[in-house]
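Please decode residue identities from the backbone states below.
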């Protein structure tokens, strides 16, 4: 491990005690964890773990189903760890027992292959066995850390031994590296949890082989370039552009960054920096969503930020957070923590309904409902679904939310020697170790005032000055302001949280002449229900003094202000000579994360501003 690394304080040492994120954590604990469990039960995903499905029975286990359950399990463990409950513990124990009971004598587990394709074990690169194995490992690490019980993690250890036997020793598998990355990052977590170098070595084995044998994934997988799809087009240290399936990509980059930090591999670190810049400077929506195209669920060319047809999968944003978190460990640079904030308050929050029960897979960046009916909804252009769903046939996103929200404490704070870094501003109590506690008192993002108190000794504090805050008074080094903190003496910073307009580079052509409205880290959008239809016709006054309020139906903050809209009264013409007639109107904006919670509606993030 590099000596300069930041040591992230993990969520087990952090209690989010109130405010914005406490509400979200409570919603997750009380509603979302159970809702996802119930949907996965109804769709046969938990029953599949018994590995007794036979032809003719309902609920045929799919290749990625195990990963859905494993991610739910990981999130349920985090939830239980912070708020023990017998009912949840029973579900956790039963899931683990079923997994352990149905592992084969070699340690292998996959409910699809064990019931349907025994003969194809480790033969099909794109069929997710190692991806599922990785998610089981992440759940097992969570369980071991939460309980100290090593049954589950030892079960995964046996599975890893079998993977080593087949992929490293015998080399008798049908592919060399996983089609869907995930196991690489999970093995590094296994290494952290156990200290056993075999996990690090296997992760490096897969990382080092990627791109060395570019190959098609499978004949029936009709993507333009199959090696790019799975980031298998070039050795990882030579990759400079984020390509292919976005979730696979960011899971890979997460592992690369973690491996670079653990081994001190500077070439790997440089590749990660280049890839991070490529994503965040050219391929990221303002919401923190990534992966523009539904074709291959993929990154495309730079500045392809076509809001109306954005794919922007929830898992990809979550993967970007994982990647940024690993990069932050290697370099205390707010470029990483700013991206985490952007994704958390926007793409991640948006993906879950306000009632905590339904989810976006693809997160719309703009909605014009009548366009979705083009060609009876079968248009070659794939429009994202306007509303969230309780479960999907490929339901990877909901359980990714289930595991992210209870572990949010992971993202708040790190230490490096005597310096305590605060990256995210959440009302919390943090155990820094060695008898030191950190208290963060804030109503962020309601306002930008944050009071930080260290107890148990003096230290240097490094507080992130949020990237959206361009009018602060602090001196910064890579986005952090460094202050001396005395034991028990509160330090208060204040980041002016006015409403701000943001514009994008000219190459992001769909946003030209338009601005996004942001207050603090939270993006605001307009819905037709509050503003009348044809939202693109609205023009906000640049000197508009927005008033804050609470939305009567949604209970979320609102910004109300002045705008104009064109007068276009003649319903019979499609075109006319330009007229300057404009009507003054009031505009009501809601947080982007609250969009489409009242049924399908037109929604806009990028406005004309004059
Ligand atoms: O293949 C498993 C999951 O389904 C991926 O992570 C998602 O992007 C979707 O392809
Ligand atoms: Zn997903």
């Amino acid at each position: 491990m590099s000596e300069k690394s930041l040591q992230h304080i993990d969520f087990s040492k952090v209690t989010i005690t109130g405010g914005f994120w406490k509400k979200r954590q409570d919603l997750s604990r009380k509603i979302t964890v159970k809702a996802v469990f119930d949907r996965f039960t109804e769709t046969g995903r938990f029953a599949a773990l018994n590995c007794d499905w036979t032809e003719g029975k309902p609920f045929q286990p799919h290749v990625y189903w195990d990963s859905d359950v494993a991610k739910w399990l990981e999130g349920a463990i985090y939830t239980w760890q912070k708020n023990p409950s017998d009912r949840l513990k029973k579900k956790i124990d039963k899931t683990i027992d079923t997994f352990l009971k149905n592992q084969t004598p070699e340690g292998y587990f996959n409910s699809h292959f064990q019931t349907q394709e025994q003969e194809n074990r480790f033969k099909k690169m794109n069929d997710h066995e190692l991806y599922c194995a990785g998610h089981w490992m992440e759940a097992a690490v969570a369980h071991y850390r939460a309980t100290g019980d090593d049954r589950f993690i030892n079960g995964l250890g046996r599975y890893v031994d079998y993977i080593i036997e087949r992929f490293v020793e015998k080399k008798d598998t049908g592919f060399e590296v996983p089609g869907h990355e995930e196991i690489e990052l999970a093995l590094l977590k296994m290494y952290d949890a156990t200290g056993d170098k075999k996990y690090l070595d296997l992760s490096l084995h897969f990382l080092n082989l990627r791109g060395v044998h570019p190959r098609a994934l499978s004949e029936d997988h009709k993507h333009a370039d199959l090696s790019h799809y799975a980031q298998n087009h070039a050795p990882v240290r030579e990759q400079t552009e984020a390509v292919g399936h976005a979730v696979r990509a960011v899971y890979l980059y997460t592992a690369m960054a973690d491996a670079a930090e653990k081994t001190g591999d500077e070439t790997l670190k440089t590749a990660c920096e280049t890839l991070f810049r490529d994503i965040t400077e050219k391929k990221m929506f303002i919401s923190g969503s990534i992966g523009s195209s539904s074709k291959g669920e993929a990154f495309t060319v730079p500045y392809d930020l076509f809001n109306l047809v954005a794919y922007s999968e929830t898992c990809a944003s979550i993967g970007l957070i994982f990647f940024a978190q690993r990069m932050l460990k290697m370099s205390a640079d707010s470029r990483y923590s700013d991206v985490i904030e952007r994704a958390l308050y926007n793409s991640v929050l948006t993906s879950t309904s306000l009632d905590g029960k339904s989810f976006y897979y693809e997160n719309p960046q703009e909605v014009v409902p009548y366009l979705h009916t083009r060609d009876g909804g079968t248009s070659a252009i794939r429009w994202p679904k306007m509303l969230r769903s309780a479960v999907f046939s490929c339901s990877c996103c909901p359980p990714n939310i289930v595991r992210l929200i209870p572990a949010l404490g992971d993202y708040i704070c790190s230490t490096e020697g005597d310096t305590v870094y605060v990256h995210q501003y959440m009302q919390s109590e943090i155990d820094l170790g060695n008898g030191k506690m950190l208290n963060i008192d804030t109503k962020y993002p309601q306002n930008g005032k944050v009071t930080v108190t260290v107890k148990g000794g003096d230290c240097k504090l490094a507080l992130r000055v949020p990237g959206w805050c361009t009018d602060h008074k602090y001196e910064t080094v890579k986005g952090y302001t460094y202050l001396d903190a005395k034991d028990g003496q509160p330090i208060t910073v204040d980041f002016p949280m006015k409403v701000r307009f943001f514009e994008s580079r000219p190459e992001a052509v769909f946003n030209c002449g338009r601005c996004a409205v942001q207050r603090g880290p939270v993006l605001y959008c307009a819905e037709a229900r509050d503003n009348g239809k044809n939202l693109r016709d609205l023009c906000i006054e640049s000197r508009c003094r927005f008033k804050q309020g609470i939305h009567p139906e949604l209970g979320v903050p609102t910004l109300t202000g002045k705008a104009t809209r064109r007068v276009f009264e003649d319903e019979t013409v499609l075109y006319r000579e330009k007229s300057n007639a404009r009507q003054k109107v009031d505009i009501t904006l809601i947080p982007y994360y609250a969009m489409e919670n009242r049924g399908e509606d037109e929604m806009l993030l990028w406005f004309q501003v004059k």
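Observation: DSSP finds 16 helices and 19 strands in the chain.
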